[in-house]
Specification:
This protein is of the alpha/beta class and about 260 residues long. The protein has one domain: Spore Coat Polysaccharide Biosynthesis Protein SpsA, Chain A (Alpha-Beta Complex), CATH 3.90.550.10. It is about 40% helix and about 20% strand. The protein has twelve helices and ten strands. The N and C termini lie far apart (about 35 Å).
């Protein structure tokens, strides 16, 4: 087997089924294979990862491996060993937990709907991971997002020191980072039960967040305390990195941005 150097990578490509609104809009059975400017989203993500010097073997967590095997561009990568398959585990957090168990750390994680992903974003993120952090997430400030893509509508986490949008890139650097994945699973399990969520995360932290008094540093400290791991962020200067394809408007925007590139 060929030994591919670089960071082991996981692409989350789970599906909400053929009734997913983006999949329906794209006329396909699986969201990851919705074409954006004529190329399936998952293929675009894999292309960007292959062009990133820091990336090693790429693993795709998907419940329809036959779709990957049947793709003309991805199938040869499977045959070469550059690309490998893992089962999707029903939710992003469960898929990450299973991948950490199977692959260990360090593990770079991104998503199949990150259709605009660029190699320079991946390289910037991996080159700027804070020393001593067990797990890191890529975030972009609202100013950077609006400057790059003023027409987009993103969800922002608003802290006392700024508003941030996720960029769908994560680095699980040490074995301790598995605690973050476990906490993520607990949050997912309680997302429809606000009282249990408050008990899990702590009412004081949630109150400070709601009042706009919680800094992102304090939030990361709280997260790390709960998970037994040191959490950090990499602030991305690329506002477009916050754009993924999760709804019809996102698909239209991604098509337009790629047409302009």
């Amino acid at each position: 087997m060929v030994d591919f150097s670089g960071v082991t990578t996981l692409v989350l490509a789970g599906s909400r089924g053929p009734e997913d609104p983006v999949a329906k809009l794209g006329g396909v059975s699986h969201k990851a294979f919705v074409p954006v400017a004529g190329v399936p989203m998952l293929v675009r993500v894999v292309r960007a990862l292959l062009a990133s010097p820091s990336i090693g073997t790429i693993h795709i967590a998907i419940e329809r491996p036959d779709l990957v095997r049947g793709d003309g561009e991805l199938s040869p990568l499977l045959a070469s060993g550059r690309l490998r398959l893992l089962p999707a585990e029903g939710s992003p957090s469960r898929s990450v937990s299973a991948a950490l168990d199977a692959l260990g750390t360090p593990l770079f994680v991104t998503t199949a709907d990150h259709a605009l992903l660029r190699p320079e974003w991946v390289e910037h993120f991996l080159a700027n991971l804070p020393a001593g952090a067990d797990v890191c997430a890529a975030l972009a400030r609202d100013q950077a997002v609006m400057a790059a893509v003023p027409e987009t509508q993103r969800t922002y986490l608003r802290f006392a020191d700024g508003a941030f949008s996720g960029c769908n890139m994560f680095a699980f650097r040490t074995p301790q980072s598995a605690g973050i994945a476990q906490l993520w699973r607990q949050v997912e399990a309680q997302r429809k039960n606000p009282l249990r969520m408050i008990r899990l995360l702590g009412p004081w932290s949630i109150l400070r967040f709601l009042l706009g008094r919680l800094t992102i540093g304090a939030a990361l400290d709280r997260l790390g305390t709960l998970a037994g791991a040191r959490a950090a962020i990499v602030e991305m200067p690329f506002g477009m990195a916050a754009v993924d394809v999760d709804k019809a408007a996102d698909l239209e925007l991604a098509e337009r941005l790629l047409a302009q590139a």
